[in-house]
Write a structure and sequence with these properties.
The radius of gyration is 15 Å and the shape is flat. By secondary structure, it is an all-alpha fold.
């Protein structure tokens, strides 16, 4: 049962925007040792960068078109 759930989670993660997931993981790890004001700035910059990515544009277009997104990882 655990293996089935792990596979289901892996399949879900494989369809997500990899650059966004990597950035979230990096920011979460950094948050343990970064002062709050600096962490908020780091997150602001990351959101700005990710908001200009092709995956972001694809996510918005898919949402507006009521279809599943096809993320490319950039």
């Amino acid at each position: 049962q655990l293996m089935g759930e792990a596979i289901k989670l892996a399949e879900h993660l494989a369809t997500q925007p990899t650059k966004g997931l990597a950035t979230i993981k990096k920011l979460l790890n950094e948050s343990l040792s970064t002062p709050m004001h600096q962490q908020l700035e780091n997150e602001r910059l990351a959101m700005r960068m990710l908001g200009q990515s092709n995956d972001y544009k694809e996510g918005v277009a898919a949402f507006m078109g009521k279809r599943k997104p096809e993320f490319k990882g950039y």
